[in-house]
Structures are given as structure tokens and as C-alpha cells.
């Protein structure tokens, strides 16, 4: 019996050690989320203002708004950790995702109960550091623009009543969806899409930490496909890393891999369609139709049918073709304006459920006529 007890205890010890040694898999967007507000990329004005609140510990109600992936939630979480420390963070901060919990019942019950509680006494930080730990709590309402009108109306009274011991931070994408009485009670901070240099610096840092070999073309592809959303760019990088490491031996990540993961149409494909329509594009990798057939109905119809059979999204084709035409260096303003009207009409038709192949063909033929 003693032998069985020893064996069981040894097995349990081995399992505990293996659990400690093996780190839990974690998305890179969480792994590299800023730990302090100094780590937040490209939001200099907001960071500068919040730095002063760290020294004065006088925090107002706040409203963070801007496009997805610009660091809104990461900034308030980093600020809260710097104010309260890892131990007091648990009992001083309430984070709710308003897209899931957005009814008036949540405001009256969960939010009000937390807001009315007097903050607990400051505990000594386990990491040995000293934190300001001001005498109030913070409630973070992520995606607050998803809250109902009634819930927002109930929230404004709570913000006034318990302002001495509770501060609110509303995080949203569209500030116009926050009712004016609620927005007027908050200091507004606008988060802008990340500039290319800041995004490239952050992506390069993560790639270096994860030992992922990427060149400038890959980073440029990540930035262009993410449209200022750093979270999306990091997710694409992690997906590409897993894809490249799944082969034996591992393959090098290319910009085409990033475009494939992002669901965009490869540049070579769009350029081929543009040249068939009659837009001059400098791309030597494009398989050209004979010059005599360029811009003809048959050549355009054949190219559109080929694209749709390959399964590309009509909306994505039209969006990328729009950017190519509108930012074309040699087309004049009148041709670009006429083409833009065509793209707008097609986008509306696709949103209404029109046939994709017919509208891509329609756009191609009308743009061909507009630029000729």
C-alpha cells in the first residue's frame, strides 16, 4: 500500500511539473498587449494626457473612440494596471463587453452594485513596486456604442451619483451612437488609425520576438491589408507563421501568403483585370491578352468569368479596382470621378443582393468606356 501511495504521489508530481513547464498557447494580440501606456503605439496625444493623470491620480470619466485595433481597450487596461497594480486590479476594475451585456438590467444590477461599493483598502503589491492606487474604482464598458438607449440613459445617473468612488471609461467605435448626455459627462479621446511607420515597428518587434523571418514586402502587405488595424495585422502575422511552419522544411512567408490569409485579391490578378479593361499598369508578371483584343467585350467577359470561377469576392474585386483607378497617376480627374460613380453604384447593388458576376462585368465595361 505504501508503494502504491508513493507511485501515485510521484505520478502527481510529474503531472504538476509538466503543467508548469508547458506554457499555455496564447494569441499574439494578447501576448503583446501593452503593459504600460508608454507601450501604446502612435497615440501620442492621448498617452501624454494620461501620463499626467498617473502623477495627479485625478481621473475623469473618459470616452475612447476610434476605429478597431487602434489600442483603445489596451490603453485603459494598461492605465488601470499602472494605477492599481496586479493585486488591487482584480477588485478595483470591472470590465464589461457591452455588445454582450448591453441591456438596462445589466446597468441597474451589475454596474450599479459595483459602482456603489466603497473601494477596499490598498493591499501591499506582491511584486514589491509602489502604485498610486487612488481611492476610486474603474468600470470599463467596451463596445459601449452597442448599448441600448435605455441602458445609456440609466447609466448617466449612476455616473453622477457615484462619481466620487467610481470612474467610467466608455470604449466605442462610433461616438455618434453614444447619447449626448452621456458623452458630455466624459473627457473624449480620439484614437486614430496607426501610421505605417508605427505599425511596421510594432510588427517587426513581434516578428523578432517570435523568431519569424519577414522582409519589408511582407510587412508592407500586413499594413496594407489591415488598414490601420494593428490587431488584425498581428493576427495575420501569427496565421502566416503557423502556415509556414506547418511544412517540412518551413517555408518563407511571402506577401502573397498575407494576401491569401487576409482574403484580398492578389495584386497580379487585379492588375490583369485592369489591363484588360484598358488601365495602364506596370506589372511584368501579368499574362496579357493580345493587344488587339484589349478592351473588347469578349476579352473583358472572359476575364471576369475567370475571376468569378476562381472564387474571388465581387465586393473585394470592386474595392481594389476602385483604389487602383482612383489613385492612378496618369488618369485625369474627370475619368476618375466618372469611374467612382460607377463603383459606388455597383457597391450599392451588391449590398442589395445583386448578381456578383453581372455587376463585376458591368463595372468593367463601364469603366472601360469612362477612361477611353
Automatic annotation (TrEMBL):
Task: State the compartments where it is located.
Answer: Nucleus
ATP-binding as a keyword?
yes
Main site of residence? nucleus
Specify whether Secreted is a keyword of the entry: no
Q: Which Gene3D superfamilies match?
A: 1.10.8.60, 1.20.272.10, P-loop containing nucleotide triphosphate hydrolases (3.40.50.300)
Check the record and name the SUPFAM superfamilies matching this protein.
P-loop containing nucleoside triphosphate hydrolases, post-AAA+ oligomerization domain-like
Its BP terms in the Gene Ontology are:
DNA repair; DNA replication checkpoint signaling; DNA strand elongation involved in DNA replication
Q: Name one GO molecular function term.
A: ATP binding
Polar residues composition bias: which ranges?
A: 1-19
**Residues covered by the AAA+ ATPase domain:** 58-195
Specify where the region named Disordered lies, as residue ranges: 1-20
Task: Give the transmembrane ranges.
Answer: none
Keywords, A to Z? ATP-binding, DNA replication, DNA-binding, Nucleotide-binding, Nucleus
**Name of a matching Pfam family:** AAA
Q: Which GO terms describe its cellular component?
A: DNA replication factor C complex; Elg1 RFC-like complex; nucleus
Q: Which InterPro entries match?
A: AAA+_ATPase, ATPase_AAA_core, DNA_pol3_clamp-load_cplx_C, DNA_Rep/Repair_Clamp_Loader, P-loop_NTPase, Rep_factorC_C, RFC_lid
Family the entry assigns: Belongs to the activator 1 small subunits family.
What name does UniProt use for this protein? Replication factor C subunit 2
Amino acid at each position: 500500500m505504501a508503494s502504491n501511495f508513493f507511485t501515485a504521489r510521484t505520478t502527481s508530481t510529474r503531472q504538476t511539473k509538466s503543467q508548469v513547464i508547458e506554457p499555455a498557447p496564447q494569441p499574439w494580440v494578447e501576448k503583446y498587449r501593452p503593459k504600460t501606456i508608454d507601450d501604446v503605439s502612435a497615440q501620442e496625444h492621448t498617452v501624454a494626457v494620461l501620463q499626467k493623470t498617473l502623477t495627479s491620480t485625478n481621473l475623469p470619466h473618459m470616452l475612447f473612440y476610434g476605429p478597431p485595433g487602434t489600442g483603445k481597450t489596451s490603453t485603459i487596461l494598461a492605465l488601470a494596471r499602472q494605477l492599481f497594480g496586479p493585486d488591487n486590479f482584480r477588485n478595483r476594475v470591472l470590465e464589461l463587453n457591452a455588445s454582450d451585456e448591453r441591456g438596462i438590467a445589466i446597468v441597474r444590477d451589475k454596474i450599479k452594485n459595483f459602482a456603489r461599493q466603497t473601494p477596499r483598502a490598498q493591499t501591499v503589491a506582491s511584486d514589491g513596486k509602489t502604485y498610486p492606487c487612488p481611492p476610486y474604482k474603474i468600470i470599463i464598458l467596451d463596445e459601449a456604442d452597442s448599448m441600448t438607449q435605455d441602458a445609456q440613459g440609466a447609466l448617466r445617473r449612476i455616473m453622477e451619483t457615484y462619481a466620487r468612488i467610481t470612474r467610467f471609461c466608455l470604449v466605442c467605435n462610433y461616438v455618434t451612437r453614444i447619447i449626448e448626455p452621456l458623452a458630455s459627462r466624459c473627457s473624449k479621446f480620439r484614437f486614430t488609425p496607426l501610421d505605417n511607420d508605427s505599425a511596421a515597428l510594432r510588427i517587426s518587434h513581434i516578428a523578432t520576438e517570435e523568431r519569424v523571418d519577414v522582409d519589408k514586402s511582407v510587412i508592407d502587405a500586413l499594413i496594407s491589408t489591415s488598414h490601420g488595424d494593428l490587431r488584425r495585422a498581428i493576427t495575420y502575422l501569427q496565421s502566416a507563421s503557423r502556415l509556414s511552419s506547418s511544412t517540412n522544411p518551413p517555408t518563407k512567408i511571402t506577401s502573397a501568403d498575407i494576401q491569401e490569409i487576409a482574403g484580398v485579391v492578389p495584386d497580379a490578378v487585379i492588375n490583369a483585370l485592369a489591363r484588360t479593361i484598358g488601365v495602364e499598369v506596370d506589372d511584368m508578371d501579368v499574362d496579357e491578352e493580345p493587344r488587339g483584343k484589349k478592351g473588347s467585350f469578349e476579352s473583358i467577359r472572359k476575364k471576369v468569368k475567370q475571376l468569378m470561377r476562381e472564387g474571388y469576392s465581387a465586393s473585394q474585386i470592386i474595392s481594389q479596382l476602385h483604389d487602383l483607378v482612383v489613385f492612378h497617376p496618369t488618369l485625369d480627374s474627370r475619368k476618375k470621378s466618372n469611374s467612382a460613380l460607377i463603383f459606388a453604384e455597383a457597391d450599392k447593388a451588391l449590398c442589395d443582393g445583386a448578381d456578383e458576376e453581372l455587376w463585376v462585368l458591368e463595372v468593367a465595361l463601364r469603366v472601360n468606356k469612362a477612361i477611353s
